[in-house]
Design goal:
The protein is of the alpha/beta class. The protein is 48% helix and 16% strand. The structure holds coenzyme A.
């Protein structure tokens, strides 16, 4: 399918998505949100690894400020970005963000929602939302603390600190810092390594790693056991046979 704000390359074991609004530093607008939701739908139906990156030497300079200005309470409650980033975080297979240049505001939150981040030497992470009179409401307030620790999260979210690549690496936020011209190659090497693992083992590991309470992991595990059982096969076949005879 064709996209207006994304470049999408489909491979057997992975999908490579490039945020592509370079004229607006890949700011995340409503069209990009819609297109990323469509992509999530595809990855939920046919799970594959995801590599997310940005065009033009920028990851993403945040949510689109032109649109943010027009949004009110109802739009905030609709969780336009937070629900998308949550959906991305819950994709069945691992996700990798390859961050070159700025990952600010919602752009940083999108990177935080991925499972693993790689950075180029020019990567900069920051959450300048309070400077715009809002808060980082799409995951930074809790995901960044989980990824880099509360102290660093407070420096970024309250102190306006921008993390350059070295600081992001030092805090554990990014796995590796590489020259920009080798960023995608390194990201693909990481995906290659993951692709050599059992896909179902990766999926269940991610599910369990990210489990916050018993649900929905317990539900899914229980269902997985039942789906392989005799009872389910016999009872469902009996129902279908009864209707066709
Ligand atoms: N939303 C909407 N438009 C944005 C944007 C955003 N988050 N970030 C950048 N743009 C637009 C600019 O308005 C500009 O548009 P114009 O060419 O029509 O004037 C274009 O992208 C280029 O931006 P510019 O600031 O000239 O680029 P730069 O390379 O000098 O600086 C940034 C890059 C990322 C440092 C700077 O654009 C910036 O600070 N952006 C906002 C970051 C932010 O506060 N994000 C949090 C949002 S919640």
């Amino acid at each position: 399918m064709s996209h207006r704000t994304l470049l999408v390359e489909e491979r057997d074991d992975r999908v490579v998505v490039t945020l592509n609004r370079p004229e607006a530093r890949n700011a995340i607008d409503a069209a990009m949100v819609d297109e990323l939701h469509t992509l999530c739908g595809e990855l939920e139906r046919r799970p594959r690894l995801l590599l997310l990156t940005g065009a033009g030497g920028v990851f993403a300079a945040g949510a689109d400020i032109r649109e943010l200005l027009e949004r009110g309470r109802e739009e905030a409650l609709a969780g336009i970005n937070s629900r998308l980033f949550d959906r991305i975080a819950r994709l069945p297979m691992p996700t990798v963000a390859a961050v070159d240049g700025y990952a600010l505001g919602g752009g940083a939150e999108l990177a935080y929602a991925c499972d693993i981040r790689l950075a180029s030497e020019s990567a900069v992470f920051g959450n300048p939302e309070p400077g715009l009179g809002i808060l980082a409401a799409a995951g930074a307030c809790w995901r960044l603390a989980e990824l880099a620790g509360r102290s660093v999260a407070k420096q970024v979210l309250l102190g306006g600190r921008r993390l350059d690549a070295a600081a992001a690496h030092g805090s554990g936020l990014v796995a590796e810092v590489v020259p920009a011209d080798r960023l995608l190659e390194r990201a693909h090497a990481l995906l290659d390594r993951m692709a050599s693992s059992s896909p179902v083992a990766l999926r269940l590991t991610k599910l369990v790693l990210d489990a916050r309470g018993p649900h929905p992991v317990a539900d899914d595990l229980a269902q997985a056991v039942l789906f392989e059982g005799q009872d389910k096969a016999e009872r469902m076949r009996a129902f279908l046979d009864r209707r066709s005879s």
